[in-house]
Structure formats: C-alpha cells, structure tokens
Amino acid sequence: MAVEALSQQEIExxxxxxxxxxxxxxxxxxxxxxxxxIAAAAMVVHIAQIQEELDHHSDLTLGYHSVSLSVHTxxxxxxxxxxxxxxxxxxxxxxxxxxxx
Length: 101
Prior knowledge:
By secondary structure, the chain is an alpha+beta fold.
C-alpha cells in the first residue's frame, strides 16, 4: 500500500498539535532533554520498541542527556507522511514518563 506525502499545509497543521516538533527540510524533528544519560538511553530503547511495533524507523540519536529524532518516510521518496506523525505522537506519549522535556 502506497503512502502519500502530506502537503505543506497538512504538515503545518499536524505540527501545531506536537509542540517541540519542527520541519527541517524534508523531515520532522524533535530533541528531548533528560536528567541523565541512563534516562536518555532508556528512552531510546522505548522508542526503538515503538518503531518496531509501527514498522517505521527514524534516525535516532542518543546524546549525553538527550535524545533526538529525525523522521521521514523512505517509501514515499523521503517525504513527510502520516506515518511520521503517528510515530511522533507515540514518542510524545512516552516522553513525559521518561522525564523528557
């Protein structure tokens, strides 16, 4: 099943519901700050589990006290799609539990 790219307006509308997420070139991105490296690593593992469940994977970067995601859909030619926002929403849903801000 083909995944459709979202229009610029659709992307902006969806970003309005995800504070902290931004559009950078052809990807939606977000960085989180956490209280420790262990907390950041735990969040990365949790995100990896969500990505496996959704069968949709982001570029995921673990920093000293940070986690960053960069998301687009390869099967849509690298465009931003509803799949990217589904992943972003799930990550937002778990971020608070990890103490991320």
